[in-house]
Amino acid sequence: MSECRDGEAKKHHHRGRSSESLLNKAEILAALSITPGQVILDAGCGNGYMAKEFAQRTGESGKVYALDPDEESIGVLESETAGTIIVPLVGDMTKQTSLPASSIDLIYMSLVVHGFSQPDMDGLRDEAKRLLKPDGRLAIVEIKKEETPFGPPLDIRFSPEELCKGIGLPPSQLIDIGQWFYLQIFSR
Fold first, then answer.
1. Is residue 107 within 8 Å of residue 132, measured between CB atoms?
2. Which letter does DSSP use for residue 50 in this model?
3. How far apart are CA 45 and CA 69, in angstroms?
4. CB 86 within 8 A of CB 55
5. Which residues pair with 171 in a beta bridge?
6. What is the pTM of this model?
7. Could you tell me the residue ranges of all domains in the chain?
8. Residues 23, 110: contact at Cβ < 8 Å?
9. pLDDT tens per residue, the chain (188 residues)?
């Protein structure tokens, strides 16, 4: 099994592409067991399709932060979600965000971790630990590290074991969510 990435950043960009049509949202949402009043961070939210799903489940008593480094995507999401519980933010989960410590019940990341360098993984781990409430969870959806008809090169994908090693939080669940994807949940 290979180690997590070294300090050299791999080039793989998502801008303008959404994974929405590839993933079984119902299966993911069932596994996450979201309840009213929760505070959720959709990190690497892209166009915000999952942030919108989370907002429906947390209700008016909850809050959903939608974080992405792409200012254009966040600008569009801001205009689409004005007046809702969704708070779009420009930011990078591998660095300290503007969100308060111990404020998040669930951090969700979908198809963004593959290709992270070791310093990126360290930053993600540190920021997740800082943001999560004591019983909080980090949920990561990734593409399996095997040949698939689409997706990033195999050498930048993480197997569940490599992801565990890189995240540094205790894994609590590993769920197969279709032919090409898995969901791994880590507990604070």
1. yes
2. H
3. 9
4. yes
5. 186
6. 0.90
7. 39-187
8. yes
9. 333 333 333 333 444 455 566 788 999 999 999 999 999 999 999 999 999 999 999 999 999 999 999 999 999 999 999 999 999 999 999 999 999 999 999 999 999 999 899 999 999 999 999 999 999 999 999 999 999 999 999 999 999 999 999 998 999 999 999 889 999 999 98
The token duo for 166 is: 């890189």
Q: Which two tokens stand for residue 102?
A: 């111990």
CA distances to 38, 47, 115, 128 from 165, rounded to whole Å, are 28, 29, 15, 15
CATH topology of domain 39-187: Rossmann fold (3.40.50)
- The CA–CA distances, whole Å, from 146 to 19, 51, 152, 156, 188 equal 18, 28, 11, 11, 29
- Greatest Cα pair distance, the chain, in angstroms, is 47
Q: Which phi and psi angles does 168 have, rounded to 5°?
A: 75, 20
Q: Is 115 helix (H, G, I), strand (E, B) or coil?
A: coil
